[in-house]
Amino acid sequence: ALLDLGPRAAEVVALLSEQLPRDASDDLAEVWRTARRGGPGFPARWRQETKRLTRSTTTPSDARKVSDDALAGMVVALAFPERVARRRGGGFLMASGTQAQLAEGSRMADAQWLAVAVADRPTGSASARVRQAVVIDEEIARLALPVEVEEEVVWRVPPGERRGDVSARVVERLGAIELSSTPLKNADVRPAILHGLRTEDLLTWTRPAKELKDRLTFAHRAIGPPWPPTDDLIALADQWLEPELSRARRRADVERIDVASALRRLIPWSERLETAAPERVEVPTGSHIRIDYSGEQPVLAVKLQELFGWDEAPRIAGVPLLIHLLSPAGRPLAVTADLASFWRDAYRFVRAEMRGRYPKHPWPEDPLTAPPTRRVNRSRP
């Protein structure tokens, strides 16, 4: 097929099989001109191979109108279509997907398209190094490779960015080279959004949403089914992110989802969540203190004086609360899951240290009979 382009094509084909001089230009069209002039370094076998190949050629009428440079480009592009390359940034991208770079000072530095005849990859380099190539245009590139047109719906992160978004396009390509794209309307973007959910933190996790997730996590860990697992919520997207997910077309739509409201769709019995993992617990003063479910064991952080008279904290789904006893200033004094043991053994040491620091607050000798309080007691026990 290459020889169908005529005798001049035979010269280029013969040149492709030659070991060129070290100082030869990387512009194969220039090398060809030098060879035709009888330049030094080109062995007789190139001329002999050209004569041999020429016997098999014909010259179509339209080939006579093609310039030498264009014909050289056509031969190289048709011989190595996977090496057709388009400029991208400071280098080139081949149709094969390989990055390529011209040598510094190359006469082809301003080219937009190349047909690469010879390339290698230096050790440790991410890009191939172009040894021989010819400048071509897009028309020749399209002759060498079939144009592929496909609908592409993906989650795309632009170069240099950390945040991606849905990209729905009709893309025209030559191998890995993108020629053009147009927006694709009414595309099914759900798979792309699911990919975005898995690779980026798209959902807006407010404090209520995080706390509800922690409660569901605890309920599943302590009770099991029918309380759902929360370690891979994206796998359960159909159960809790619909219909918002199907309506979403881009990142901003996902970010606007009310995650706390959506999570409630996972609760098997909404009226039983307060039993399985209550949001708050009432302490002896009547205060309703929020429980922290973010750890392995539910935590109740409360000022020590509010627990006077409480010798045992309630269990949550059979799991004892871990009590973080706080000073009047809200600083941690002790941690215990056994209040009775704390009052009996450790409290006297806490009392001895704290009653001088907080003289306006009660530090009774017998905390189990003292009235719980949230207020300052001006008469210190």
Question: What would you say this structure looks like, in words?
Answer:
The chain has helices at about 5-15, 30-35, 45-55, 70-80, 140-145, 190-200, 205-220, 235-240, 245, 250-255, 260-265, 275, 340-355; strands at about 85-90, 90-95, 100, 115-120, 130-135, 150-155, 165-175, 175-185, 280, 290, 300-305, 315, 320, 320-325, 330-335. The chain has four domains: about 1-145, no CATH class; about 150-190, no CATH class; about 195-275, no CATH class; about 280-355, no CATH class. It starts with 6 loop residues before the first helix and ends in a 27-residue tail after the last helix. Helices cover about 30% and strands about 20% of the residues. The chain has about 375 residues and is α+β, with helices and mostly antiparallel strands. It has a five-stranded mixed β-barrel. A five-stranded mixed β-sheet has the order 9-10-11-14-15.
SS-derived structural category:
alpha+beta
Described by the principal axes of the CA atoms, the overall outline is elongated
What's the domain count?
4
What is the residue-mean pLDDT, rounded to a whole number? 91
Determine the N-to-C terminus distance. Answer: 106 Å
**Strand coverage percent:** 15-25%
Please state how the strands of the largest beta sheet are arranged side by side.
1-2-3-5-4
Question: Helix and strand string, N-terminal first?
Answer: HHHHEEEEEHEEEHHHHHHHEEEEEEEH
Helix proportion of residues, in percent?
Answer: 25-40%
Radius of gyration: 38 Å
Tally of strands: 15
Main β-sheet: number of strands, strand sense, barrel status? 5 strands, mixed, barrel
Low-confidence stretches: none
Helices, by number, come to 13
